[in-house]
C-alpha cells in the first residue's frame, strides 16, 4: 500500500497547522514549515500563518533545487545553519534567495521508515537556534510522526473496509456504495449504465476436488483478469463467494455484452495445474443496462442476475443479457 495523502485527513491537517503556528511563535521566526518530499518536488504541507512568511501551503520547488530540507532528508539528520551568508554552498538555494539565512530542520519519516519530509524553522536574522528551540522542534517532529502513524492506521482500516482481502477488488459494501453513486448519476443525467454479473462455473467442485486453497487461487486469478481488462471508468467488486459484479459507466448493452465476452475468453485462458492435472476454468455472465423500469439499483442488479441465470440454464460459459 502506498503512503496516504494526509490532506485527506482534516483533523490531522488542523493539528499540523497548530503545531507550525505554535513553534513559529515560540521560536519567534517568520516561517515554520512541514515539508513533504514527493516524487519530483519538495512541497509545503503546512506553513505557519505569520504575516512575514513568504511560504504558503502547496508551494513547491523541484527536487534538486537545493532547499535546506533536501539536505535534511538525504542525510536523515538535523541540519542547523546559523548564517547561510557564511557558507557559499547555500547561496544559490531558493531559501537563501528568499532571505532565509538561519535554519533548523529535522527529518520526518513514515512509520515504515521511508522519508515523509521535514519539520523546520527559518529566520531572516542570522543566529543560532538555542537548545530550548531545537528541543521544541525535535519534540514536535515526533508528534508529527505520531500523526503520520495515526493516518497510516486509518488508511489501512479504510482499505480493509473498501477492498476484498482475497481478491483486492471492491468489497461488497464499497461496491454497493459505488453502484448507488453510478445509478444516481444515471437517473440525473440519463448516462448509459450497464452491469455484468459474473459467476465462476462449477466453483464448488473446484473447492471439493482440490481444496479451498486452490479455490482461493482461482478467485484471485479471475479477479486479476477483471481488473486488468477494465477501463479507468469501470470498477469491479466481489458480491460474495464466486460472484463478481462489474460496473460499466457510459456503456450501452451491446458494448457491455462485448466486454463480457472478452472477459470470459480471458478467464478460459487461465492456467491452473494441480498435481499435473489441469483445471479448466470458465464463468457465466449476465448483462443488463439501466432503463426506465429500474426504480433503484437493486432492480438493475436483479435483472443482471436474471440474465446470469439464463446463461447457466443454457449451459454456462456464455453471456446472456436482460433487455
From TrEMBL:
GO terms for cellular component: plasma membrane. InterPro entries: Diguanylate_Cyclase (IPR050469), GAF (IPR003018), GAF-like_dom_sf (IPR029016), GGDEF_dom (IPR000160), Nucleotide_cyclase (IPR029787), Rev_trsase/Diguanyl_cyclase (IPR043128). The lineage of its organism: Bacteria, Pseudomonadati, Pseudomonadota, Gammaproteobacteria, Cellvibrionales. One of its GO terms (biological process) is cell adhesion involved in single-species biofilm formation. It comes from the Bacteria. GO terms for molecular function: diguanylate cyclase activity. Residues 191-323 form the GGDEF domain. It catalyses: 2 GTP = 3',3'-c-di-GMP + 2 diphosphate. Signal peptide: none annotated. Its cofactor is Mg(2+). Its EC number is 2.7.7.65. This is diguanylate cyclase.
